[in-house]
Amino acid sequence: MLGYLAAMETESDRTKFETIYLAYRGLMYHVAYYILKNPQDAEDVVHQSFVKLAERMADIPDGPCPRTRNLVVTVTERKAIDLYRSRQRHPEAELDEQALVSQPAPPTGGGLADAMASLPPRYREVLLLKYYNGYSAREIAGFLSATPDAVTQTLHRARKKLAEILEEREETP
């Protein structure tokens, strides 16, 4: 943790980072291990995620909160899936993100939350970062190691898919 803190410019960033580190390192390890099934790879992913978060410390809300938890889990999942993909030696074997990310069965009561739960993880994550956490496409791209154009396209597809799901359930977006 000292290496991360040394890179911080202000004391408030150091304090915020330390709080996030202590609050979420176990959760991040759990998320990474669930995807990778390897403790060393999971530790690598947690480290890479903290490096990414340290680079973007100004964009992260203060202290532990649902927005911060959502961001931390999303960054960790993306880093774990990236590492998983890079470890694959067979290019014909495609990664099924649905199988990797723990996802409960979508509720059946209707409503926007239920429709969001039935979206693919990538779509759900980007929509939550944009509309729940309030990040711009450029900020989301920084967190997910993607281009702003790719994030914008993913947002477009996610909104379209969400509208389709809501129409199937006879609801309006």
Written account of the structure:
With 173 residues, the protein is mainly alpha-helical. Helix content is 70%, strand content 0%. It is built from 9 helices and no strands. It has helices at residues 2-6, 11-36, 39-55, 66-87, 97-100, 112-117, 121-132, 137-144, 148-168. It is globular.
Layout of SSEs?
Elements: H1 2-6, H2 11-36, H3 39-55, H4 66-87, H5 97-100, H6 112-117, H7 121-132, H8 137-144, H9 148-168
Helix pairs in contact: 2-3, 2-4, 3-4, 4-7, 7-9, 8-9
Gap from first CA to last CA:
44 Å
Order of helices and strands: HHHHHHHHH
Number of strands: 0
Identify the overall geometry.
globular
Helix content: 55-70%
Biggest sheet overview:
none
Low-confidence stretches: none
Question: How big is the Rg?
Answer: 17 Å
Question: Which properties best describe this structure?
Answer:
173 residues, mainly alpha, 9 helices, 70% helix
What is the compact description of this entry?
The chain is mainly alpha-helical and about 170 residues long. Helices cover about 70% and strands about 0% of the residues.
